[in-house]
Write a structure and sequence with these properties.
By secondary structure, this protein is an alpha/beta fold. Helix content is 33%, strand content 15%. Strands 3-2-1-4-5-7-10 form a seven-stranded parallel beta sheet, with helices on both faces. Strands 6-11 form a two-stranded parallel ribbon. A two-stranded parallel ribbon has the order 8-9.
C-alpha cells in the first residue's frame, strides 16, 4: 500500500517507517523539520508539512504535495504519529490546539480523500491518572480498554477527543480506524535515562503499574494495524508483557500504594505489566518480543 506517516522524525515515526518499507509498502514521511537534501539510499520520500494547516494536510493526504515516490495520488493508509508527545514542556493551550487540530485535519482529509485505513497513535494517558493535577488511582490493574476515561490534562484530553473523531469518521464514511494506546515508548537511546532509575530502585512508585513498550515492538503493531482488515474503529493498548525491572505487579503496587482502592485482578505471571495488551494480541496477532533486559542489567545499568 501507499502509506503516509506523520510525525516521522519522532520516536514512533522513526521506528515505523523502515518497518513499513521492509514489508513492501510505499512510504512517504512527513514532519515539521526541513527535508534532508542528501537522504541515504532507501530512505522514504519526505515532505515538510504543518498538520495544523488544513490546506497543507488536504494537499498532503491527496498526494498533491508529494514530488517523490513510486505512485502518485491519495494514500491508501495514514499513520498519524505527529503530535506534541506529552504535557508539561509546552503551554497547555499549545498542546491542546496543536494536537487536536492536527488530528482533526488528518481525519477530515482521510475521509474526503477516501483513505481506507487510519492508524491513530493515541496514548496510555487516556484514562487520566498519569498526569492528573488532582491525583487518583486506576479502578483496577492491569487496565484494559474497558477502563473508564477521566482525563484532566490537555494531552490526555486530545487523545480521548482524537479517538472520538475516529468514531465519528467511521460513522460517516468508509474509513476504518485503529487507535493504538502505546505505553511509555522506549528505544535504545532512552532505556537508560528513562528506565534505568526505575530498574535500580524497585521501591520507586508508578501509578500506571510500571508499563513500557519498545519502539520497534510498537512499530510492528502499527504495521499489523495498517495491514488489518478490521472494520469500524478499534482501540488497542500496546505494552510489553512485563513490568519495568521485572517487579511483581501485585506486591509492588501494595507496597507503593497501600491505601489505593485499586482492584488487583488475576495475572498470568507475577511480573505482568500494569497494562493488558490481550485485545491487540487477539485482534492483530501482535506480541511484544523486546524487553528492557535487552538494554539494561538487573541493576539498571547499560548492558
Amino acid at each position: 500500500m501507499r502509506v503516509l506517516v506523520t510525525g516521522a522524525r519522532g520516536k514512533v515515526g522513526h521506528a515505523v517507517v523502515p518497518v513499513l518499507q521492509a514489508a513492501g509498502h510505499d512510504v512517504v514521511a512527513t514532519d515539521l523539520g526541513e527535508p534532508d537534501f542528501s537522504p541515504p539510499p532507501g530512505t522514504a520520500a519526505y515532505v515538510k508539512a504543518d498538520l495544523t494547516d488544513a490546506g497543507e494536510v488536504y494537499a498532503l493526504v491527496g498526494g498533491a504535495s508529494v514530488s517523490e515516490g513510486p505512485r502518485p495520488g491519495p494514500f491508501e493508509a495514514v499513520v498519524h504519529a505527529g503530535a506534541i508527545p506529552a504535557p508539561g514542556r509546552h503551554a497547555p493551550q499549545l498542546v491542546f490546539r496543536n494536537n487536536l487540530t492536527a488530528m482533526f485535519n488528518v481525519v477530515e482529509a482521510s475521509v474526503r480523500w477516501g483513505v481506507g485505513r487510519l492508524v491513530n497513535i493515541s496514548s496510555e494517558t487516556a484514562p487520566g491518572f498519569l498526569f492528573a493535577e488532582r491525583p487518583f488511582f486506576p479502578d483496577y490493574l492491569p487496565i484494559d480498554e474497558d477502563h473508564p476515561l477521566r482525563p484532566q490534562d490537555p494531552y490526555a484530553l486530545t487523545k480521548v477527543f482524537g479517538e472520538q473523531l475516529c468514531d465519528a469518521a467511521v460513522r460517516r464514511s468508509d474509513l476504518r480506524c485503529i487507535s493504538l494506546r502505546p505505553s511509555w515508548v522506549q528505544n535504545a537511546a532512552s532505556y537508560l535515562p528513562n528506565l534505568g532509575r526505575l530498574v535500580a530502585d524497585r521501591s520507586a512508585p508508578n501509578v500506571g503499574g510500571w508499563p513500557y513498550v519498545d519502539a520497534d515492538d510498537l512499530a510492528d503493531a502499527i504495521r499489523l494495524s495498517v495491514e488489518s482488515d478490521l472494520p469500524g474503529h478499534e482501540v488497542l493498548y500496546i505494552a510489553a508483557p512485563d513490568t519495568i525491572g521485572g517487579r511483581d505487579l501485585h506486591q509492588s503496587w501494595r507496597a507503593a500504594y497501600p491505601k489505593a482502592p485499586t482492584e488487583l485482578r488475576p495475572v498470568s505471571r507475577p511480573d505482568a505489566s500494569g497494562i493488558s495488551s490481550a485485545k491487540a494480541e487477539r485482534l492483530l496477532g501482535w506480541r511484544a518480543s523486546r524487553s528492557w533486559r535487552d538494554h539494561l542489567t538487573e541493576n539498571g545499568e547499560v548492558r
